[in-house]
Design a protein that fits this description.
The chain is α+β, with helices and mostly antiparallel strands. It contains 2 helices and 7 strands. It has helices spanning about 5-25, 75-100; strands spanning about 30, 40-45, 50, 60-70, 110-115, 120-125, 130-145. Strand 6 (about 120-125) and strand 7 (about 130-145) form a beta hairpin. The mean pLDDT is about 85.
Length: about 150
């Protein structure tokens, strides 16, 4: 996947997810910064790829990313809230896909789906007691052929 494609997706996808987190979760979405008790999104560009090529130059792009959610390890309820939040983001992505409300990339690149592809799991236990959970998500888009 080219650097231009990656930048284009990040520039459209981050504000889309950020707005949901702000409006629905009443929190600030951080970019590549798991220092706060908050959701953090990290774009894993080395795992993204082009798939389903066709003979006239079109293809589907698969853009993978991870959302982390840090919580204080006060009790089980707090830890369950982290996994519940990551699942809730996945449900939002499913609904946005079904309703055709995904971010439009460009005239040549049309969004197809946005979904959670790995269940929330414990990612890190910090020395101060905070816990970071993460879940993987995939954004699929269709790049139009040249004809």
């Amino acid at each position: 996947m080219s650097l231009n494609e990656t930048n284009q997706i990040v520039e459209k996808l981050f504000p889309f997810v950020e707005k949901f987190v702000k409006d629905e979760l009443k929190q600030t979405l951080l970019l590549d910064d798991v220092t706060d008790i908050a959701p953090c999104i990290s774009f894993v560009t080395d795992d993204s790829r082009k798939i389903n090529f066709n003979v006239v130059g079109g293809y589907d792009g698969e853009f993978n990313f991870t959302i982390y959610y840090k919580v204080k390890n006060k009790d089980t309820k707090e830890r369950l809230q982290a996994t519940k939040t990551l699942n809730y983001i996945g449900v939002f992505f499913d609904k946005a896909t079904q309703k055709g409300l995904l971010p439009n990339l460009s005239d040549e690149d049309t969004p197809v789906s946005l979904e959670m592809v790995t269940n929330p799991t414990l990612n890190t236990r910090e020395e101060n007691g905070n816990i970071v959970y993460s879940a993987g998500y995939t954004f699929i888009y269709r790049h139009a052929n040249k004809f």
